[in-house]
Amino acid sequence: MKIQVHHVFPPKPTLFYSLIQLTSITPHFGWAHRISNFNASIFSHPPDPSLGYGDKTIGSDLYKVLKKFLNNKTFSTCGAIVVILVKRYPNESNVSDIIYQLRSNHILVYITVDSIPSGGSNSATLFEMSSKTNGYCVFASDYDLIFAFQSMGAILYTPYQFVAQNFVVTGSGRIELPVFKTPIHEGWVQWTRVVITVQDHTLDNSFVSVNYTISSTDGVVAYKFPSDHDDQRHGTGQADLVASNGTLHYKWTIDYQYSTNTPQIIECRMYSYSYHDFLPLPDF
Predict the structure, then answer these.
(1) What is the value of pTM for the model shown?
(2) Higher pLDDT pick, 159 / 7
(3) DSSP 177
(4) 3-class state of residue 23 by DSSP
(5) What angle separates helix 62-70 from helix 96-104, to the nearest 10 degrees?
(6) Is beta strand 81-86 parallel, antiparallel or unpaired with respect to 237-245?
(7) What domains can be seen in the chain, in order of their start residue?
């Protein structure tokens, strides 16, 4: 498992990170001021394939590691971005104390979860922790897992979140987000990042489709999914870049269809390279 942390305070963001394999005794902590140095350190500390639990009933130590991170005395965790790849699920069913601590420090948690776990029993708390901190959670397997995690890590290049909405839906219908502006300077055009997730668990047969359009209020389509040029959905999540104009106002319209009336959660997120302050957190 890898935990990557990015502090996003202007004028010059500082990258902090920890790279942790949960079967390791001593986590590796460090920091860097450039993405290149950050990547070099991550790739120089790969997981040790010889280590393992050897028992599928044992849950991940993820939450113990997060507590160590939250309670460390080496650096401040306020405003951090935490990116986690999970193969072994935790067993805990209540992690409210950790979620409260994450929220109080404005820490956004992003989790890519393997739909085929190596052990553990509870993936619901992973989604809850990410969603309640304005992060997001994607369930995927095989190559979709790789692409979903790579896309999640790319948030480090556009770290400032300016849209974060969660919707509970059933059956089929339409969602229209409130009109918004990007934090991009007036007259400038920059890439922003859009993310949507379609279920709060491993993708199942109840999911039929989610299509959406982001367009300016004067009718110009900035992004449409699906289309010939989009980045496809990987597991329960889809992410891509959107060319956005700092002068314009935008609306995001989502059409969804599920084959049952079981409640489903759709997470909507957008990010920019231009600074934006913390968004309000969902009720908890």
Answers:
(1) 0.89
(2) 159
(3) P
(4) coil
(5) 30
(6) unpaired
(7) 3-157 (3.40.50), 160-272 (2.60.120.380)
- The CA distance from 59 to 55, in Å, is 9
Question: In the predicted model, what is the mean pLDDT of the chain?
Answer: 88
Phi/psi at 164 (5° precision): -150, 105
CB 45, CB 7: distance < 8 Å: no
Q: Are 84 and 2 in contact (CB under 8 A)?
A: yes
For 219, phi and psi rounded to 5 degrees?
Answer: 100, 0
Give the pairing type, strands 81-86 and 108-114: parallel
More confident site: 40 or 60: 60
Tokens read off for 248: 């314009």
pLDDT digits (tens, 9 = 90+) for 146-177: 999 999 989 988 999 999 999 999 999 999 99
Q: What burial letters (b/e) apply to 185-200, b meaning 16+ CB within 10 Å? A: eeeeebebbbbbbbbb
Integer Cα distance of 33 and 89 in angstroms: 32
Q: What is the pLDDT of residue 30?
A: 59
Looking at residue 35, its pLDDT comes to: 66
